[in-house]
Amino acid sequence: MADLPDWDLFQSLHAVLTAGSLSAAAKLRGLTQPTVGRHIDQLEKELGAPLFLRSPRGLQATELALALRPHLDDMAAAAQTAIRDAAGAADGTAGVVRVTASEIVGVEVLPPILSAFREKNPQIDIEVVLSNRIEDLTRRDADIAVRMSRPTQNTLLAKKAGSVGVGFYARPDYLKRHGSPQTWDDLEDHTIIGYDTRPPTLPEGADFGRPVTRDIFSFRTDNDLAQIAAVRAGFGIGVLQHGIARRAGLTQVLPGALPFRMEVWVCMHENLKTSRRMRLMFDHLAAGLAEVIQDGN
């Protein structure tokens, strides 16, 4: 069987696909740009086909490169998992735990919980991935996830921390200037903050009783943190979790208008339950989130 290309070459390919350019890929890998360029040239030579088309707009990935990407993602995730596991091999509690959560939870909720964990477990390093995309725990993109819906994969160990409610909120001085809406129809006379191109994922059964489209919003962004920042700045009325809104000193309007709740779950792959450091983080997150949820509700 013919020799396979060196894994180092595939790492550079994955870096270019991830970063989008040779220079950015070089920074990502800690190499020089010419070195990454030579890796790509060598890999193309060994595969016998181009991986990128060079144009004034930069590098355009070919079908071959795009076909290889999911496999490279899997290999990169496996390599990172091996590094994390190896870091904790000598001591059952020392090492790295990689946690993933949504942007809102990661910025507004997790920092004090993770700070308390670090004080108790200084031998454990923490990596945090903030994304509204659900990371694949079966592939170990992350070790532990905080999710806003019930997990469906049978291979996951999951614990429900509680459920959070949401409502319409605004800054007090905005309501002083514009008045407080008393009905849904009154919202038409206010500045509403909401999504741009990606409608939010709502709990099953959630119903506003009327269509919700982007044109009803005067401030549009798909970034949840930007929406919260706009409400805090007094731009208008937006939808926030009760606990986050109250800690920010915001005032609720139309109480009860959004009666649905979102479940909060802590999940990890069942194969990790024997890892001491993973279990420490799993239990700490479940307890910390439950406390935050109870205080916020």
From TrEMBL:
Keywords: DNA-binding, Transcription, Transcription regulation
Keyword Transcription regulation: yes
Coiled coil stretches, renumbered: none
Record-linked InterPro entries: LysR-type_TF_proteobact-type (IPR058163), LysR_HTH_N (IPR000847), LysR_subst-bd (IPR005119), WH-like_DNA-bd_sf (IPR036388), WH_DNA-bd_sf (IPR036390)
GO biological process, any: DNA-templated transcription
Domain HTH lysR-type: 5-62
Molecular function via GO: DNA-binding transcription factor activity; sequence-specific DNA binding
Signal keyword on record: no
Similarity-based family: Belongs to the LysR transcriptional regulatory family.
PANTHER family to which the protein is assigned, alphabetical: HTH-TYPE TRANSCRIPTIONAL REGULATOR (PTHR30537), TRANSCRIPTIONAL REGULATORY PROTEIN (PTHR30537:SF3)
Protein name, UniProt field: LysR family transcriptional regulator
Organism per entry: Phenylobacterium soli
